[in-house]
Design brief:
Layout: H1 3-13, E1 18-21, H2 28-36, E2 41-44, H3 48-62, E3 66-70, H4 72-89, E4 93-99, H5 115-119, E5 125-128, H6 135-146, E6 153-159, H7 160-164, H8 184-193, E7 200-204, H9 211-224, E8 227-230, E9 237-239, H10 253-260, E10 265-269, E11 293-298, H11 304-314, H12 340-350, E12 356-360, H13 369-372, E13 378-382, H14 391-401, E14 407-412, H15 413-416, H16 422-428, E15 433-439, H17 444-452, H18 460-464, H19 475-481, E16 485-489, H20 492-504, E17 509-514
Helix pairs in contact: 1-2, 1-6, 3-4, 3-14, 8-11, 9-11, 12-20
The protein binds thiamine diphosphate.
Length: about 525
């Protein structure tokens, strides 16, 4: 057995059964081992950011890490932006990076780079495996590290001779430590905060946004009168009819402070104290109202469900019916010219049961939530790391993880171009993804950002950095060139028809919304 064989077998035995790969020479033994070992699904990405983003989406939907396979320092560097997003989302990934054979590194040949140096800021755990005899054990440790709550990036660097040299055996993956239960003190403090009689808010993030935890939060809200609020962006929010309805802290500072205004007692569960995305001259960085007391019940790494359950028990709320449950309700099918609300309605009117919405709609979709609050139950995935190019890769991972569920991937045209190759992987794997491109032919968000940072009235050169209209991008043709069928739509009626058709079909499809 080679080191590569021992590693692949260790991965499969440890529950890592999908690998999102873009290999090169140094990973050839690992690639060859994939054919000799049963149980590993291998998905080729044509850019490493597709692979790391796909592993992120896979973890969000399964709670189990996938592996990547990346080619030395440059391959890892290409993957880093989406590794960053995955790290912020608390997604576990076994991030495997090939390296030159140990004895070859000193010759400083073209692909030689400081792989550990590149990996460290984007990883929680980094190890270069020293020999083919230890590579299985190192792989098992990487799986364990990736599984540490809420999920971690574990980067395992594999010199080529660790793959082709002889191995001893496969390794057992040790169990990851269970997430911490809340301390009695934290529960008492949170209960006290929500029963002072002052306006209270339970701010939820991470695993606290799953159906059961939301229901418990709804019971607490019913019992204490506190508001429940979701964080600004979330790895996975379970929403729709029959679930406790939740909104997110808005991106725009003035809107966020308006939502939080009046809160005197804020209890955090799986969320951090809300902060503005960026600093803007004259605007606050922290969004919590002045004089508001903040109490941490549980961090994102803790057992949020146990924490909310303990809080509900402490408050005597367990048998109270939950407040804020969304009734089944869909908007009417919209007609006429595109408006942002109309787009939200089209989505709300057509979202199928159990859909997974990957949201990289940037400015277009900020107000979509109310229109789908009463749609059939679905999951909503946001970018947590702010690095655009997250949407289509995460959709790949979600679709691989949940082949029986429709994935709807909403992307701004600017964001779509960062990782457009993901369409090819969707076609090759026949993934059930409907990609909605919002073609406003600009980096729309940056117009408001110019003004917000105190640089209004942009000149033609500045405007040129924000527009995508010269030449215009034709996403239907781009998709076709990568094996994905699609169509343009020019009004809401056309969009709704396209969406209905796409929802009734299996497989990848792209709709370009020409705004
Ligand atoms: C990796 C990376 N590069 C650049 C940015 C800055 N940025 C944020 S949003 C954005 C434009 C997004 O355009 P689009 O997806 O078309 O959405 P719109 O703003 O038009 O709604 C850019 C360039 C970023 N966040 N991440």
């Amino acid at each position: 057995m080679t080191g590569a064989d021992s590693l692949v077998r260790t991965l499969v035995k440890g529950g890592v059964t999908v690998s999102f790969a873009n290999p090169g020479t140094s990973e050839m033994h690992y690639v060859a081992a994939l054919d000799r070992v049963q149980g590993m699904r291998c998905v080729l990405g044509l850019f490493e950011g597709s692979c790391s983003g796909a592993a992120d989406g896979y973890y969000r939907m399964t709670g189990t890490p996938a592996a990547t396979l990346l080619h030395l320092g440059p391959g890892l560097a290409n993957a880093c932006a989406n590794l960053h997003n995955a790290k912020k989302a608390g997604s576990g990934i076994v991030n495997i990076v090939g390296e030159h054979a140990t004895y070859h590194i000193k010759f400083d040949t073209p692909l030689t780079a400081d792989i550990e140096g590149i990996a460290k800021p984007f990883s929680h755990w980094v190890k270069t495996s020293p020999t083919s005899k230890t590579v299985a054990k190192d792989g098992a440790q990487a799986i364990q590290a990736a599984r540490v709550s809420p999920g971690q990036i574990a980067t395992l660097i594999l010199p080529a001779d660790t793959a082709w040299g002889a191995a001893q055996d496969i390794a057992e993956t040790p169990a990851a430590p269970a997430p911490a239960k809340p301390s009695a003190d934290a529960v008492t403090a949170a209960a006290k905060a929500l029963t002072t009689g002052e306006p209270g808010m339970l701010l939820l993030g991470g695993r606290a946004l799953r159906e059961r935890t939301l229901e418990l939060a709804g019971k607490i809200a019913a019992k204490t009168g506190c508001r429940i609020q979701g964080a600004g962006s979330n790895a996975r929010l379970e929403r729709g009819a029959g679930r406790v309805q939740i909104s997110r802290v808005p991106f725009v500072v003035e809107q966020a402070t308006a939502v939080l205004q009046g809160t005197r007692q804020m209890v955090l569960c799986g969320a951090r104290e809300p902060a503005a995305f960026f600093a803007y001259p004259g605007k606050p960085s922290m969004l919590t109202p002045e004089g508001c007391t903040v109490t941490k019940l549980a961090g994102v790494e803790d057992d949020c469900e146990a924490a909310i359950e303990a809080l509900a028990a402490e408050l005597g709320a367990l048998n109270v019916p939950a407040a804020g449950i969304a009734a089944p309700k869909r908007p009417d099918k919209p007609t006429g010219k595109f408006t942002l609300d109309g787009l939200g309605m089209a989505l709300g009117a057509t979202l199928p049961e159990n859909a997974i919405v990957v949201d990289e709609s940037i400015t277009t979709g900020r107000g979509f939530f109310p229109f789908s609050a009463g749609a059939p139950p679905h999951d909503w995935l946001n970018n947590m790391g702010g690095s655009i190019g997250f949407g289509t890769p995460v959709a790949i991972g979600a679709a691989v993880a949940c082949p029986d569920r429709k994935v709807i991937c909403m992307v701004g045209d600017g964001s779509a171009m960062y990782t457009i190759q993901s369409l090819w992987t969707m076609a090759r794997e026949n993934l059930d993804v409907c990609v909605l491109i919002f073609s406003n032919r600009s980096y729309q968000i940056l117009y408001s950002q110019l003004a917000d940072v105190g640089a209004p009235n942009p000149g033609p050169r500045a405007i040129d950095m924000l527009t995508l209209d010269r030449p215009t991008l034709d996403f239907v043709k781009l998709a076709k060139g990568m094996g994905v069928e699609g169509a343009q739509t020019h009004d809401l009626e056309g969009l709704t028809k396209q969406l209905q058709w796409a929802m009734s079909q299996k497989g990848p499809y792209l709709i370009e919304v020409v705004m």
